[in-house]
Amino acid sequence: MNPRREPRGGRSALFDGIEEGGIRAASSYSHEINEHENERALEGLQDRVILLKRLSGDINEEVDTHNRMLDRMGNDMDSSRGFLSGTMDRFKTVFETKSSRRMLTLVASFVGLFLVIYYLTR
């Protein structure tokens, strides 16, 4: 009989120990590769977690800074509102009298003339 045409059962019986040993070795090697890949992936994830933690801390600091700035701006706006309402009250009292309106018109004309002369001489 031709050795290449051996029945399948005879061939498997001939290589039983070698194939199983080879499979075990390949399986062990594959397991080591998987563990190594898992360790590298774990290190990569740890680096990403650390980066995200730093980034979230930076975002938190930035948000706190902006909140403090907005609080200061709100306080400044409140004080400006009080100042402007006082100024508007004064304007109302000035406009209530006719002589005050004439004086305001004269002052506004003078300021306007001054600005025109200033910009023409520049």
TrEMBL record:
List where the protein spans the membrane: 103-121
Report domain T-SNARE coiled-coil homology positions.
32-94
Keyword annotations: Coiled coil, Endoplasmic reticulum, ER-Golgi transport, Golgi apparatus, Membrane, Protein transport, Transmembrane, Transmembrane helix, Transport
Query: Origin, by domain of life?
Result: Eukaryota
Report the membrane topology from the UniProt record. Single-pass type IV membrane protein
Residue ranges annotated as coiled coil are none
The UniProt entry's GO CC annotations, sorted and at most eight, read:
endoplasmic reticulum membrane; Golgi membrane
| Major localization listed first in the record, in broad terms | endoplasmic reticulum
Q: Which CDD domains match?
A: SNARE_Bet1 (cd15853)
User: PROSITE patterns, per this entry?
Assistant: T_SNARE
Record localization: Endoplasmic reticulum membrane; Golgi apparatus membrane
InterPro entries associated with the record:
BET1_SNARE, T_SNARE_dom
Q: Which GO terms describe its biological process?
A: protein transport; vesicle-mediated transport
Q: Which PANTHER family match?
A: GOLGI SNARE BET1-RELATED
Function, please? Required for vesicular transport from the ER to the Golgi complex. Functions as a SNARE associated with ER-derived vesicles.
Would you identify the family this protein belongs to, as annotated? Belongs to the BET1 family.
| Protein name (database record) | t-SNARE coiled-coil homology domain-containing protein
Species of origin: Thlaspi arvense
